[in-house]
Specification:
Structural class of chain A: mainly alpha
Radius of gyration of chain A: 16 Å
Largest interface: A-B, 55 and 60 residues
Helix content of chain B: 25-40%
Distance between the termini of chain B: 85 Å
Shape of chain A: globular
Strand order of the largest sheet of chain A: 1-2
Structural class of chain B: alpha+beta
Number of helices of chain B: 7
Order of helices and strands of chain A: HEEHHHHHHH
Oligomer: heterodimer
Order of helices and strands of chain B: HHHHEEEEEEEEEEEEHHH
Number of strands of chain A: 2
Strand content of chain B: 15-25%
Number of domains of chain A: 1
Shape of chain B: globular
Number of helices of chain A: 8
Distance between the termini of chain A: 13 Å
Radius of gyration of chain B: 28 Å
Largest sheet of chain B: 6 strands, antiparallel, barrel
């Protein structure tokens, strides 16, 4: 835990992570191959979506998640609203279970983060199945899930930084 | 009355509830957008202004960001070529010896093919113009497999144009804006491409699922495919030209027939967009569907009615318009594409290129073959 909590400025805890996720997504979308392998495609936006729900309930955060999801849909060329809905579902579930999860150990929180990622991907899987009437490749989903859960340290850093900013929700 | 005296002043909506309301509103927005999305129709109007603007902005940004990566790639390639020059030379010499025999065979087959084309009066496909583009952005997830190329409307790229690398088919264009075009990969879950097995001519639909090897669906016939068969586009439906290399058939671990894509042999960094318009796009559909007077010949029976009026001049030559669309400018393309604005076309077929040699055939063909 950090000794000094950072003030909960909307730009710092909402705006900056959104921009960082956009830049990271842009960098990882470069058509590069290393030793015949392309870059992984993790869902960077899962980290702030999870962290915002853990820090405190907020009116602006869901719209931040919505913006990030729409960015992913547009930038990746997927159906409009797919990732927005997936991320919002994960955000909502984490927000509802926040009282149960808060204060747990880092490894346990990592497990919860993995569960949230699995939930977001399950929503994406079901929506895609309904939309295209075809089953997405489970192996491709697993690789993306694996790449995404490795991002928990970024979510933890965000939680650690703003966790004590609003004492009402500690 | 002061604020403290206001009877509603003590009523506070808890932040948790307002956050929940905000979440519900955001979910409703997302669901509405999802229901209104028509990406899977792959139509121009379904692409939307938002995506066009986004592609127009992100293409140059991604291009700038990816430039150092491309430089590094070229540098590492140059270094490896320098160090492996001797082994590369040996490999190329061996390959050249193999190709020398093939070259003679190809020349012989070309000669025979040209004679058959002459004898049968076949009308071969016109050369397809194409533009080269660099891929600046790439999405590889399970729910979307698309790429952004830095050639767009200003270079006559249209929705539906097939996209290839030097190895094989990559996908097709699903969105175009100025300076950028969005390519739907064959591996995308919304991608459906009519293909055929080169050995047996068995038709199938190549269906992407977000993984690296798309599935062969709706295979017909008895034992239509076996492992190692070459898969090419069938040209059915006019979506793509016939015979573009797609890949090789393999049996997946799930028991389904899948295709190892030929384009996966190398990095998909530079692509060729084929400015392909199929036959149904070239002909004037309105003119084709207009009911006209049938051609009347002298030996038609006229039983019980008065003699037919003399046929108008236009009614005597409609089949020529339908059968030979390339011998005159297509009606639906008022501004023919300037050849100088495009990359040099593929080498023209040896015989009868109807676009470049508009002179009529010396003799009417005995057998009429459809244009593939």
């Amino acid at each position: 835990m950090s000794l000094m909590a950072t003030r909960l400025d909307p730009w710092r805890w909402l705006g900056a992570p959104i921009l960082q996720c956009m830049v990271a997504t842009l960098l990882f979308s470069l058509p590069v191959r290393f030793f015949g392998w392309g870059l992984p495609e993790p869902i960077f936006c899962m980290a702030p979506a999870f962290a915002w729900a853990m820090i405190r309930p907020s009116i602006a955060a869901p719209f931040g998640v919505l913006i990030m999801g729409l960015f992913l849909d547009i930038f990746w060329g997927g159906p409009m609203g797919l990732w927005a809905l997936s991320l919002l579902t994960a955000y909502g579930v984490v927000l509802a279970a926040r009282n149960m999860m808060v204060g747990q150990s880092r490894s346990m929180m990592w497990m919860w983060f993995a569960a949230a990622c699995a939930m977001a991907q399950t929503v994406g899987f079901l929506v895609t199945q309904l939309d295209v009437r075809s089953t997405p490749n489970l192996l491709a989903m697993f690789w993306q899930f694996l790449a995404t859960i490795l991002l928990y340290p970024f979510a933890h850093r965000l939680i650690d930084r703003f966790d004590d900013a609003d004492v009402r929700f500690r | 009355m002061s604020f403290r005296d206001n009877p509603l002043g003590e009523i506070r909506v808890p932040l948790v509830w307002t956050a929940a309301v905000a979440l519900i509103v955001a979910v409703i927005v997302a669901v509405t957008l999802l229901l209104g999305d028509r990406r899977e129709t792959l139509r121009t109007e379904a692409y939307g202004v938002t995506r066009e603007v986004s592609d127009a902005v992100s293409a140059p940004v991604s291009g700038v960001v990816s430039a150092p990566v491309h430089w590094m790639g070229a540098l590492s390639q140059g270094i490896s070529q320098y160090f492996f020059a001797v082994s590369e030379n040996r490999r190329l010499r061996a390959e050249l010896e193999e190709v020398a025999d093939l070259r003679q065979e190809v020349t012989r087959l070309q000669d025979i093919n040209a004679r058959y084309v002459d004898l049968l009066g076949l009308r071969t496909d016109p050369p397809i113009p194409m533009v080269s583009a660099r891929v600046v952005s790439d999405s590889r997830g399970p729910f979307a497999n698309t790429r952004l190329a830095n050639a767009g409307r200003e270079r006559q790229v249209q929705v539906g144009n097939p996209v290839m690398t030097e190895y094989g088919l990559v996908g097709r264009v699903v969105g175009v804006t100025r300076g950028a075009s969005r390519i739907l990969m064959l591996t995308d879950i919304a991608s459906r491409t009519p293909v055929m097995v080169d050995r047996t001519n068995a038709r199938a639909i190549l269906a992407g699922d977000g993984g690296p090897n798309p599935k062969l669906e709706y295979l017909r016939g008895h034992d239509p495919v076996k492992a190692g068969d070459r898969i090419v586009t069938s040209g059915d439906g006019g979506l793509m030209p016939r015979g573009l290399p797609v890949g090789v058939a393999v049996k997946g671990i799930d028991g389904a027939w899948r295709v190892v894509l030929a384009s996966e042999a190398g990095a998909i960094d530079f692509v060729r967009i084929l400015l392909f318009e199929d036959f149904s796009q070239l002909v004037d559909q309105d003119e084709l569907n207009t009911p006209g007077e049938p051609p009347v010949s002298g030996d038609l029976p006229s039983v019980g009615v008065s003699a037919p009026p003399p046929p108008p001049a236009a009614a005597t030559t409609p089949p020529a318009d339908v059968r030979a669309p390339a011998t005159r400018p297509p009606a639906r393309t008022p501004t023919p594409k300037a050849p100088a604005a495009k990359a040099p076309p593929r080498p023209a077929p040896a015989q009868s290129d109807p676009v470049q040699s508009p002179a009529p055939d010396p003799a009417p063909p005995a057998i009429e073959e459809p244009v593939f």
